[in-house]
Amino acid sequence: MMNLTLRFLITLLFMLSMAPARAATILRNCFAAPGTYQTTINREFSADENSAGKIIQPDGHLVGAGQAITAQCDCPGNMTASSTVMGFAFAGSPLSAGSRAGYGYLTENIDIDIDAYTDAIHSPDGSGLYSIAIDNYPTTVPVSSMESLTSKESNETVCRSGTQPVSGVPSRQFKWNILSARLYIKSPILGQETIPPTLIEQSSACLYFGSGMCGSGDAQPVANIWLSGSLSAPLSCTINAGSTIDVDFGAIARTNFTTAGVPPVGFTLKAVNINFHCDNAAVSQYQKIKLTLTADQGVSDPGDGLIARMMGRDDIGVRLYDTNSNSVGLDGNMAFPVVLDSQGNGSIKMQAAPVATTATPPEAGPFEGNVTVKMELR
């Protein structure tokens, strides 16, 4: 009896091992072309954010604008109206490796790390979707998602006309257009950092029914997501610690004004030192900063723009000179190069003198005028 029982078990196990395994049926030629989606990031960094090593995450999902794509698979004869089609999405990035592990190169100063998402046709803002973390740039092996179910064929078909198991069913549409991103600041930006249109993520997908699953080798390209935009950080500089620079010329005899546009006889030019301090972002990029001077009351010599008008006076003005005694423009058109030390400090040294604006010496009495010092990006 023991020998008979043993032979029976062996026979049963052999029969079970020979039972055919149910395999997934991969649906082929489902998508004629991948969808193209455009998304943007436009953001101004605060001074605290705009520093090397910072990671900034834009709020919410990035939603790419573009049309849905329609499934038109070559469906086999064994598909029925009750078949449930399942699928996997795969994602990767063509970006070159960035300076930080797990990030791709975006611009000279910014790297990016992205997460793709599963089909968003029923989730326009990306809520409730499975994320696909992309950590290798460029991606050589696409990252797969969790399995996502579609409708039964009786509700939405993925089959092209002529291969549908049931007629009159609307075609299934898909949209792989959602991202999330993290920005890594390699070096602070100054002014504006443009993100040119850049292909940052590519998705593929495979559809199937039955038991089992499909792999990346069965997937077709379904989405290309492009990113563009602008990142900015305002120039933050303080001139003369925020105080007015006062220049007192003292008392001058009007008879010393002998020639229009020339300092009085015997007058010693007054030193005018313009000191400034800029934040850290400007230290390594000070070449982008320019300094200009503009007479608040305008200039007496519009062609040259060298003599600042005084308030309520047309017969006297003020000229500025650099340390080499060259005339300085006061109409806002002359830009001075700015140099900063490692602490963000800099200085421009000038000299000032009153001058008559006509061949006749100016009338006696006080005079006053203002010149605005402005620092901005080139």
TrEMBL record:
Keyword entries, A-Z: Fimbrium, Signal
Major location (coarse): other
Listed Pfam families: Fimbrial (PF00419)
Residues covered by the Fimbrial-type adhesion domain: 227-376
Keyword Signal in annotation: yes
SUPFAM superfamilies: Bacterial adhesins
Subcellular location: Fimbrium
Keyword Signal: yes
Tree of life domain: Bacteria
Single biological process term from Gene Ontology: cell adhesion involved in single-species biofilm formation
Signal peptide: 1-23
GO cellular-component term (any): pilus
InterPro entries: Adhesion_dom_fimbrial, Adhesion_dom_fimbrial_sf, Adhesion_dom_sf, Bact_Fimbrial_Adh_Pro
Family recorded in the similarity comment: Belongs to the fimbrial protein family.
This protein's name: Fimbrial protein
Lineage start: Bacteria, Pseudomonadati, Pseudomonadota, Gammaproteobacteria, Enterobacterales
